[in-house]
Amino acid sequence: MTNKEKYKQAFSVLHTSDNFSPEVEIMAKLNKKHNIIKGIVAACAAIAAVGGLGTTAYAANVGGIQRQIQIWVQGDQTTATMEIDESEGTYSISYTTEAGEERTIQGGGIAIDAFGNERSVNEEEMLEHMDMPEVDYLDDGRIIVYYHSQAIDITDKFDNNDICYTHVSEGGKEFYMTIKKNGGYGIDTVKYPKATDFN
C-alpha cells in the first residue's frame, strides 16, 4: 500500500457538513481578525487623543516655550526669562536690573530662503540674534558698544559723516559694526555694512 492510499483510507471516514463552504469559513476568520485590528487601532487612537489633549493643555498653559536663560546686559551677565512663540517667530525676554527695575526685550522676524520663501525665525535663530553686540545711546551723550563683558566707548570715534566702524570679537565670533551717531547701526560677520543699508 502506498502513502497516498494510506492517506485516503485514513481520511475517508471524515465527512464535511452539508452547510460547509470554504469561502464562508475564510471570510468569517478574516472578519474576526479585522474586528480585532479595528479594536486595537481604536484603542491606540484613544490613547493618542488623551496624550495629545494633555500636551495641548500644557502648551496652552505656558503660552509657548519658556525658559530661564543667562544674557549679557550692559557688560553684566543676568538671569532672564525668555518666552518664544515659534509660530509667530517672536521672543520676549524679561529681567530685573541691578536697580530693581523690570525690563523687557522683544524681537523676532522672518527669514527668507534662497527661493524667496518667507518663514518665521526659529528658536535657534532668535538665540543667535540675542548673542550679538548692541549699541547703547546714553543720556549723557556717550555711545557704548556692549558685547558680553566688553563695554567699548565709541563716543569720540565717529568720522566727519557721523559714522563709526567698530570690530568686536570674543570666543571665536567676530562682528563688523557700522554705527550712526544719530541712531541706528548694522552688524555683519564678514564686512562692515554700508550706512545706507539701515536706519
Task: Describe the structure in brief.
The chain has three helices and twelve strands.
Give Rg in angstroms: 35 Å
N/C terminus separation: 105 Å
Helix content: 25-40%
Q: Could you say which structural class the secondary elements and strand pairing correspond to? A: alpha+beta
Q: How much β-strand is present in the residues?
A: 35-45%
Looking across the biggest beta sheet, what order are the strands in? 1-2-3-4
- Give the rounded overall mean pLDDT: 74
Shape: extended
Oligomeric state: single chain
DSSP summary: helix tally: 3
Unreliable parts: 20-28, 33-62
Written overview of the protein:
This protein is an alpha+beta fold. The protein has three domains: 22-61; 63-131, no CATH class; 132-199, no CATH class. Helix content is 29%, strand content 36%. The chain is extended and about 120 Å long. The termini are far apart.
